[in-house]
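Proteins fold. Shown next:

***
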Amino acid sequence: MNHIIKHRAEQLGYNFIPKAFLPEGKDEYYLRFQQNPANDYRPLTPEEIKILKANGNHSNNWNDILVRDGIDITLIGACTFYGLVRIGKLEPYFLEFSEVRFPVGLYHSMIVSCDIGNNVSISNVNFLSRYIIEDDVIIANVNEMSCTSHSKFGNGIIKEGEKENVRIWLELCNENGGRKVMPFDGMLAGDAWLWTKYRGDKQLMNAFKTFTESRFDNLHGYYGVVGQRTVIKNCRIIKDVKIGSDAYIKGANKLKNLTINSSPDAQSQIGEGCEMVNGIMGVGCRVFYGVKAVRFILAPFSQLKYGARLINSYLGENATVSCCEVLNSLIFPAHEQHHNNSFLCAALLMGQSNMAAGATIGSNHNSRGADGEIQAGRGFWPGLCVSLKHNSKFATFTMIAKGNYPAELNIPFPFSLVSNEEHTNSLVIMPAYWFLYNMYAILRNESKFAARDKRINKQQLLEFNALAPDSVNEILEAIELLKKFTGKAFYKAHKMIGSDVDYISKGEYLLEQNDPVIAKLTILGSDIENSKRPVRIIKVQEAYNAYKKMLQYYAGKEIIQYITQNNITSVTELTAHIPIETENNKWMNVGGQLIQQKALDQLLSNIREGKINSWDAVHHFYEEQAKLYPSQKLAHAVSVLLKVYEVDRQTLYNATFLKNVFADVLEIKEWITQGIYQSKEKDFKNKFKNMVYDTPEERESVLGTLSTNEFVVQQQEEMKAFRNTIEELIRNFK
């Protein structure tokens, strides 16, 4: 049966902190007074008490109702007060928000031990308990708004005397809890990734737990907070919630154990029918229309809409999830998932990803236990009705065509198109697909992601360029695989036996010569799908050439950009900027920020040794790495340049060589710009797309024209500016 305890009525509003957890010499208000140290309240006058009673108000102890000078006591009506209630200045105004007007004052509400700021409007709140309400707040039509003495506001901590099993964990990346983390206000995607990644290092795991617990104390007695100018209306239950300034909450069903960060320049909103429990919202977040979120973190400027379900997951900055279901996932920034029939579970998506309708990514129902995972690099785009099996891993910018993929996949080719060819019972991979057939989309996404980055506090430097150290390193590895698979296919076609070294040597020769024999070979990949069916690699020569072009473009463009940004005019100046160490280091995607593996290893070593002992220090590391990134990226570009042109470092110091590189980059930029135009041109020449329009005028009114397409025009203008830059460099660089 329900355990209901009876207390004397005059005790309501008092004894907030259990005696066992009340420090010696402290009263139940000591933390409240730290949260709100204002001391300009005074007792009510007898005349004010008389007016309050005449207006239908009631208190079990009028001596514990304190007010500020300047209060218009007539603006309090039909309210019941319990415990110590402190009320700020109320003046005869009304507050207008979104064309709805609310009178300043307290009306038809039960208020238990709260601090209420200046010119607040509170009306029809059935139960308001233990909250600090700041100035100019509107709260109307709320069933229950309360805070317990052991509130944690969504953080993964426990209070004095509590058992470990009440701690909130986020079970990210894996349904079995093997990668779980303790959420905390201010957790970045990089923090979550570090905690989920290095599970075998118990020393690190203990350090991360200590970092988190040290951000908070285990004291009982904190009050909930509602920041200035926040509006809360027509909600049912709000319990143990801390709310920043300028938030807007309307029509929510249940909000419990949350931190809702919000600020004047990054307002957060929660809309109708939402139920959110055990979570943290960053500034600028939007949550609307029947969303269900449990055990979650929404990073700043992320959105949940239209009945989305987010459970045991971290959603990165500038991401949107609508309609669908996301479970046990760690999602880096700039993720898009908009369709009701898409499902994502037990996945690590490293940003700039997009989930199509019908995509089922991560169902564990096809394995013996709920312990499988999906890991995907930046730019993961599964197409319509894609179903994948755990465990699977994908290189950056992998697109997956519609299909039910029957076995685990390990796709090592970045910018590829993966297809399940049922009529031949084979897996088909087209490397460099984006460069060959959809340059418009890949380049447009770069500008789109950057434009959508609304973060104010950019603690992590997010990389939005498709060509960056992570994807470029994968291209280098993919080129070696293309050589190997091509050479192996040649040997097999001629019934010869060779080693991997033989295959790579032969494949490189054929590909460098653009040998027509390649088109006649059946080129198969290995260790790509966990099955016995063939894995065919298609368009190998075209992919090889495109990969090499993009390597040249990346390396040359990064050097050109560095030269122009730093006003470098000669080889001598440039060499002074290039780090001595330019080997091609391994890079890691740490929450959307690219960091060299050696720097990351040093961070982890410093954590183990106690040199870094807080999350703030880890965040400082991210910021320092962001400052180093331009020079590190330059060094990486130089290493790629030396490799792709097959020259030594001394050649780099030759102005003639660099000018030839500049000319190559200009040529490739023209090829890219033409590719953007041609990939978009298909939409205007496709007769099936045009058949719904009776006249060219109708089509143009709906689609616009190719010549006025904003992105196409922008790229053509950038091409002109880039040509001018290169021509000037070739003329003047010494």
The two ends are 87 Å apart (CA to CA).
